[in-house]
Known about the structure:
By secondary structure, this protein is α/β, with parallel strands linked by helices. The chain has ten helices and 13 strands. It has helices spanning 3-6, 39-43, 101-113, 136-150, 167-174, 189-196, 249-252, 257-263, 280-286, 292-308; strands spanning 10-20, 23-28, 31-37, 53-58, 65-70, 76-77, 82-83, 87-93, 117-123, 156-158, 178-182, 222-225, 232-235. It has a six-stranded mixed beta sheet, sandwiched between helices. It has a five-stranded mixed beta barrel with strand order 1-2-3-5-4. Strands 6-7 form a two-stranded antiparallel ribbon. Strand 12 and strand 13 form a beta hairpin. Helix 3 (101-113) packs across helix 10 (292-308). It is globular and about 70 Å long.
Amino acid sequence: MNSSDNNRNERLRGTIVKGIAGFYYVKSGDSVYRCKARGIFKQRDMKPAVGDGAVVEVIPGNDDSLITEILPRKNSFVRPFVANVDCFIIVTAAMRPDPVPQVIDRFLVMAEKADTDIVICVNKCDLADPAAGKKHEKAAANIGMLRKVYEGIYPLICLNSMGGAGFDELKRLISGKRSALAGPSGVGKSTILNRLIPHADAETGDISEKSQRGRHTTRHAELFDIDGEGTMIFDTPGFTSFDVPDMEEDELSDMFPEIAGAAAGCRYNDCRHVAEPGCRVLEALKEGRIDEGRYGSYRSILEEIRKSRQY
């Protein structure tokens, strides 16, 4: 092999696992390359996202490599800016802060719209133990409420992120997937991340006793490898944006599996499940087969979509 062969640039495929200060870190095999993005991306108003598949040109003698191509995305998100999420772990807490089903439902709609798998994790379940003190009954009641609403629709796991209970089941459900933690501030997402991958060393924020809300402590998006076998976790500043979903009215019912199931029997194909005759969703609601709170979330988001289309 001559010297010109030794100096030839190498092209590799990998995954962007971090982007910070204008640099992108691309994992290919066991190596991570610090890269700059080609200027053509800026000209085309394209920006690489954490989670993107990318083609990297490794330049001999240069500390930095070059991202030359972004591979097609399965999905992508604006806030935080990440791509190719396979599964959303929707995190709430048994208490401190108390779970709010309407907020959980918005995260679920986001995940359904992105066509991802979903796992609901109830963190801080140790607070429901009588040994936790007087407030354990409230925590137990909150867990019971969440089970009543969501079990049978999505996998629901009770976690004790300090003691480790429930994590074996969580790891089984997310095995081989790229998962993202989503949920309100203060529910323990960073603590869960640290339990799943201790080397992530995510900062954790205390809960304000007055507001019972936590502080976001993650400053940039990063994708961590859990087991070297395709199981990865996004650590992000937080999926906390509640913008109106970018969808049409007739799509929304598909984001609620139990509503979609009942809607198959509606008299009209364009039924919105509000007041139409022959609506099987309203019948299921009256018979208690659809939770009133979940239906309330559906109606609330439907109204937001309608208002957004007026402007």
